[in-house]
Amino acid sequence: MELYLTFLEPHRIRYTTADGVLHDDYVEVKYEFTTIESSIQLQGDLRGRDLIDWFDVDVIWSDQHRRQDPYGNVRGLGTIQRMKLWRDRYSTFHYLTFYANHRRRWKEYLLDDFDREPRRRDDARRQLQLGVRGARRGSAPESSQGHGHGRERRLSIFRHRPSTPLPNGNPPQSTGDIRYLGIQFSRNNNIQSGTDACMKKVILAVNAGSSSVKVSVYTAGFGQSPVQIAESQVSGLTAPPAKLKYVRRGQVVTKDGDVDEKVNGQQDAFNLLLDTLINDHDLPEIESREDVAIVCHRIVHGGDYAKPQLVADGTYHHLENLNDLAPLHNANSLGIVRLCIDSLPGARNVACFDSQFHSTIPDHVRTYPISQDIASKNRLRKYGFHGISYAFITRAAAGFLGKPVDEVNLIALHLGSGASACAIKAGKSWDTSMGLTPLAGLPGATRSGSVDPSLVFHYASDVGKLSPASTKELHISRAEEILNKEAGWKALTGTTNFGLIADADTWRDHPARRLAFDLFVDRVCAFVGSYYVTLRGNIDALVFAGGIGEKSARLRAAVADQLACLGFQLDAAANEGGDGGVVWDVGKPGVVPRLLVCQTDEQFEMARMCAEEEQFWS
Ligand SMILES: Nc1ncnc2c1ncn2[C@@H]1O[C@H](COP(=O)(O)OP(=O)(O)O)[C@@H](O)[C@H]1O
Ligand SMILES: CC(=O)OP(=O)(O)O
Ligand SMILES: [Mg+2]
Questions:
Q1: Cβ of 618: how many Cβ atoms within 10 Å?
Q2: For residue 542, what pLDDT is reported?
Q3: Which listed site, 99, 284, 356, 514, has its alpha carbon 20 to 30 Å from 148?
Q4: Quick one: 466 and 430 in the same domain?
Q5: What ranges in 56-184 are assigned the alpha helix state H?
């Protein structure tokens, strides 16, 4: 890594000396650093990107520029000296710079548009493959249809620098888009050597949702963008049999794996996932429980906390007091925190809150019209949830739209087992559909969403006969249980699998599924309409996320159809296609506001927050 940096383009430097003389000059700048870290810091700040890794490489090739000539000799794009992998600070996009010998001068070249993680990395063969963002896996290489729509975007090295000859000095041989780059590391260099100096630690990010537990593993240094090395999840906890998915370094190891019946609930699921990670011999970064340095936990209700907290006894007990305000989540998550405290002795536990993103909601939006004495004494207000996801969505969508985060206006929909909507104004939460608890707003897998509050009193009695006698059968905590655990899709249709509910081929035999589907579309559109007015029509995009938002093209189509009156226009082919990137565009080209899908990543967002907080590293 460089301890000297020279900028060949003159830089304008303005400064005032102690005796008041103003200098304002164009100079050729040369920096000399005493540490590698400060060199990395400056390079990152100049680019607005974090350095993830760097490698000394022998040769670089692509699917269009074959690595071997007909005689078996290695022939790539040219002789490369050093390659650096960057991640944008405001989005999930990756960039590559490499030094190549161009006309006897080492120059730095930039390639952007890469997938979020290096897809294939083979340390034994000293090779790495980087997929191009938006390139469809398995599609015909010569097709360039869909350019500019964001769904079949492919990289052309020559597109970005049309006048740039190949690094080896020859003119471009092909102008076709490429789908991946292959990189052969130098023999002289250990692939890991680049990052060792940065003191990487292993971070585990745990997301206990109401129907799933997702655990991702990252390596990161303080202030660096985390690099995912594995992701695992148990899903379908409310629609048994639960399923296991395990992906190591971008390679699917297990998909739809059967989960033992004994895995009953979020804590069992976490134990299963931890064992899967530790027992995987191909994941040397986490060979034993001692290897985990930081565990960040998604805690749905964080009360007034506006930042992640290191879990100490005080925090733990404070959070325990909030358990009743997120009955499907907080107790399970704290159970997992307790497991980690007991079984991962070397780890620091950090609580990241779903509610923290919503701490910017203004008073007149978050206040309930009740006695303000009681409200402030009992802290009764709108808190809002799914905030870790909304923070990720905001940054990813802003990056996709090419806007700074603090200028982007979005209506975001996180539609999973729990579902919510959020009005995001200038990158910050302005309103959201969940409230004091995650029960309010949209219906979910087992939740009713908003109903007339008096409904609970009539649930077990005849309408009009409300009296202490008629409600004594129904204790208020039982009512809470019914609305949280025995309502929603489960009550309406008997299943919590929204894939089944959205399957129109089954509606004839199961009319309740159609009712549930139409009801959901109605409630979602009602929030979008309301937030459209809240944001005064000043919206860059409507973003779909969460298990249903990401996977159900039919739900997106039905919502977009009803919202056409507000100017949203869906591109049916893009909606059905699915691009596989972090954000993809499903709107008609050129129409504003855009319609986007975001593969939200709450685990990454938590790991990123932890990597930025110095107190979790010292
Ligand atoms: N192909 C699909 N089509 C529609 N919905 C789906 C599909 N696959 C999963 N889902 C739904 O996504 C939801 C889970 O979303 P997710 O955000 O992962 O859950 P959690 O709320 O537990 O975090 C479930 O309701 C599930 O039925
Ligand atoms: C807050 C909430 O409902 O979360 P999830 O959708 O993960 O259950
Ligand atoms: Mg979730």
A1: 6
A2: 98
A3: 99
A4: no
A5: 157-160
Pairing of strands 419-425, 583-585: unpaired
My answer on whether 469 and 509 are in the same domain is no
Among all chains, which residue has been given the structure tokens 């399923």? 243
What phi and psi, each to the nearest 5 degrees, are found at residue 480?
Answer: -60, -40
Residues 518, 582 share a domain: yes
DSSP per-residue codes, 570-611: B-HHHHHH---SSEEE-BPTT-SSEEEEE---HHHHHHHHHH
Answer for the pair 411, 379: CB distance below 8 angstroms, yes or no. no
Range of the domain at 444: 395-449+487-602
Residue 235 domain-assigned (yes or no): yes
Question: Do 187 and 232 fall within a single domain?
Answer: no
The number of domains in the chain is: 4
Alpha-carbon Rg of the chain, whole angstroms?
26
In this structure, the answer to whether residues 116 and 259 fall within a common structural domain is: no
Same domain? 186 vs 329: no
The atom number, within ligand 2, closest to the CA of 209 reads 7
**pLDDT of the residue at 175:** 35
**DSSP H or E run through 396:** helix 387-401
Beta bridge partners of 71: none
Closest residue by Cα to residue 61 from 182, 165, 206: 182
Q: Is 78 annotated as a binding residue?
A: no
Tokens of 361: 């909601």
Structural domain includes residue 251: yes
Query: Domain end: 320, 353, 386, which one?
Result: 353
The residue annotated as part of the active site, out of 354, 431, 540, 571, is 354
Question: Are 466 and 337 within one domain?
Answer: no
The complex scores an ipTM of: 0.98
Does ligand 2 come within 6 angstroms of the Cβ of 602?
no
In a domain, 36, yes or no: no
Is the peptide bond preceding residue 284 cis, with omega within 30 degrees of 0?
no
Which H/E stretch holds residue 220?
strand 213-220
pLDDT over 70, % of the chain: 77
Residue 478 pLDDT? 78
Residue 503: closest CA among 451, 553, 445, 437:
553
Helix (H) or strand (E) holding 343: helix 330-343
Gap from CA of 486 to ligand 3 centroid (Å): 18
Query: For the chain, which residues score pLDDT lower than 70?
Result: 1, 8, 58-59, 63-81, 90-93, 100-128, 131-179, 184-199, 460-476, 579-580
Closest by CA to 89, choosing from 360, 358, 396, is 396
Q: Are residues 204 and 182 in the same domain?
A: no
In the reported structure, the alpha carbon of residue 540 is separated from the centroid of ligand 3 by a whole-number distance in angstroms of 24
Closest atom of ligand 1 relative to the 489 alpha carbon: 25
- What are the tokens at 441? 């707003």
